[in-house]
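Sample pair:
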Amino acid sequence: MENRRKLLAEGPDTAESFQASLAHDLIDKCWDGLTRADKKGWAEAFKGIILSPRFLRTWAGIDVFESTLEVNHSDGRVVWEFQPSLNHDWRRLKTFIESRSIDRLI
């Protein structure tokens, strides 16, 4: 309870950073428990998602060509916010993924 109060007092950015850290740790633990075949299946799925701009836009609200993210506000508004490095970062990731086999990615 004390940690929760501390995070709330430090603000939403600190709380979000802490949440991301916990999520990363959980994903690492889950990944470490997978068989090699399961890891390959997940890697193929993630590769398919990352390499599909249309899917990224409709499923995740990420428009890699316009460098925008769909943001849902608490008042119900939905806006697309510009993220300057998004297109560049996605292209770098795309090139990295395309240049490696799944076995090298896991």
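Residues 70 and 80 are 4 Å apart (CA to CA).
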